[in-house]
UniProtKB/TrEMBL annotation:
EC number: 1.5.5.2
Reactions it catalyzes: L-proline + a quinone = (S)-1-pyrroline-5-carboxylate + a quinol + H(+)
Keyword Flavoprotein: yes
Name this polypeptide is given: proline dehydrogenase
UniProt source species: Streptomyces ficellus
Length: 307
């Protein structure tokens, strides 16, 4: 019951101000956010890679309100590419982007987001890595998929995310499970109405498995974004049945969540990528992590009280 309330709070400016100023917030946020600056996150990238893992880096931010902010988002990613170039990690360090941060919700936003994200995808390709377009709320997805298709004409390795909780996703998966397409499947983290999304967690899990099967049996590149031990075991079995080798799919988990599992899967020979978020505009990302596991909220409240 708490999850939807926290997700509603994630859209509130008043709550944003309250949470950002609360004592103890920084300590809890640092579990999920790898740093506020690029200088803080680069050593974490190095450490993660040294453990045999890979990363996808996310500069946090969404729901911007001006074209200048969208340009600043593009520049933040271009600066990240400059740092990754020095590390010379190729596809071991890729990037995830939210198109809302590139201006998608502004007037003329579809074109603006495409114009802002293209140079980032280009710069990533020039250093031998890729970009994956995150999935946000359902109203943004037609535009996201159209931008994905457009970018893939020149950069076929550009990935996208699909969300198992949405009714539309099984059809999206059938369309995307081809032609080397890199597709991350996740359960879905936004507050969605019953008209477009399953509300029952068991229904979401069942849809996840059906979609996984489609992706595994297709000829794209599935990226399994989940910490759920049952779904991970099912993914391994479906990959085996589809005759996929270990380098023909990968697992992805979030920084700060089930770190032991990151290492276990990598030790088994799996490609394991850690979604590593950093930056100062962490509020929306942080609140979605609280909503996924309400026990995190108790921990957060306790840290405020004991400060
Ligand atoms: P589930 O929520 O059932 O969790 C399984 C177990 O994992 C829990 O029992 C708990 O142990 C642990 N766990 C999960 N979340 C936790 C948390 N916040 N804190 C502590 N423990 C936690 N969503 C989206 O809508 N668009 C996107 O683009 C992405 N991108 C993305 C990338 C990657 C790499 C991942 C792993 C996830 C996303 N997500 C996402 C988020 C996704 O939709 C989903 O909300 C979370 O992954 C939680 O779902 P699980 O599959 O982990 O299962």
């Amino acid at each position: 019951m708490l999850g939807p309330v926290i997700l509603a709070a994630s859209r509130s400016d008043r709550m944003r101000r309250f949470v950002s100023a609360a004592p103890g917030t920084k300590q809890v946020v640092s579990r999920f956010i790898a740093g506020e600056t690029i200088e803080q996150v680069i050593p974490i990238v190095r450490e993660t890679i040294a453990k045999g893992l890979e990363v996808t880096l996310d500069v946090v931010g969404e729901d911007i309100t001006t074209a200048e902010q969208a340009t600043a988002a593009r520049d933040a990613y271009l600066e990240l590419v400059d740092h990754l170039k020095v590390l010379d990690l190729g596809p071991k360090a890729e990037m995830s982007v939210k198109l809302s941060m590139f201006g998608q919700a502004l007037e003329g936003g579809h074109e603006l987001a495409l114009a802002n994200v293209r140079p980032v995808v280009e710069a990533a390709a020039a250093i031998g890595t890729t970009v994956t377009l995150d999935a946000e709320d359902h109203t943004t997805l037609d535009s996201m998929f159209a931008i994905h298709e457009e970018l893939r004409k020149d950069f076929p390795q550009t990935g996208c995310v699909i969300q198992a909780y949405l009714f539309r996703t099984e059809e999206d998966a059938r369309r995307l499970a081809s032609n080397g397409s890199r597709v991350r499947i996740v359960k879905g983290a936004y507050k969605e109405p019953a008209s477009v999304a399953y509300q029952d967690r068991r229904e979401v899990d069942k849809a996840y498995v059906r979609i996984l099967k489609t992706l595994m049996e297709g000829d794209g590149y599935p990226m399994i974004g989940s910490h759920d031990p049952r779904l991970i075991a099912i993914s391994q079995e479906l990959a085996r049945r589809a005759g996929r080798k270990l380098d023909e799919y990968e697992f992805q988990m979030l920084y700060g969540i089930r770190g032991d599992e990151h290492l276990r899967l990598a030790a088994e020979g799996h490609r394991m990528r850690v979604y590593t978020a950093y930056g100062t505009d962490w509020y929306g990302y942080f609140m979605r992590r609280l909503a996924e596991k309400p026990a995190n909220l108790l921990f957060f409240v306790r840290s405020m009280i004991t400060k």
